[in-house]
Amino acid sequence: MDVERHRSPETSGLETCTACHRPFVVPIAMLDLVDEGLYLLALLCTNCDRLSVGIHEDAELEQLEHEDAAAISQIEAALEVIEVSRFIDGLDGFTRALAADLVLPEDF
């Protein structure tokens, strides 16, 4: 477990792991309120399981929240593409069944 001070704005955000450099860091606990706008947080990288503890400012946490929301939007968009792809595949199978006269009125 590493203890870190808050990072400067020039470096990558809290969401990026300093060990594996992947954007999979999530806060797992607020350990203490150090001062107004300063929080002692436990952060976990869900990619490499690196645990770190550090003091972070409100602005960093807001950026982390923004990055999490962006990642969720990307995941939702990818799921939508998968759903549409599966629907199209299902239509293609149904179209082939119709063409081969494998669909009967009793099927409905």
How much of the polypeptide forms β-strand, as a percent range? 25-35%
Oligomer: single chain
Question: What would the average pLDDT be, to the nearest integer?
Answer: 88
- Principal-axes geometry comes out as rod-shaped
Order of helices and strands: EEEEH
Given helix and strand content, the structural type is alpha+beta
Radius of gyration: 23 Å
Please mark out the parts with pLDDT under 50 across 5 or more consecutive residues, or reply none.
3-11
Count of DSSP-assigned helices: 1
Number of domains: 1
Main sheet strand line-up: 1-4-3-2
Strand runs, count = 4
What is the terminal-to-terminal distance?
Answer: 61 Å
As a percent range, the share of helical residues equals: 25-40%
Strand count, sense and closure of the main sheet? 4 strands, mixed
What's this entry about, in short?
The chain has 108 residues and is of the alpha+beta class.
Structure description:
- It is a single chain.
- By secondary structure, this protein is an alpha+beta fold.
- It has one domain.
- Helices cover 39% and strands 27% of the residues.
- Strands 1-4-3-2 form a four-stranded mixed β-sheet.
- The longest helix is centred in the C-terminal third of the chain and has 42 residues, at 58-99.
- The radius of gyration is 23 Å and the shape is rod-shaped.
- The model is unreliable at 3-11 (pLDDT under 50).
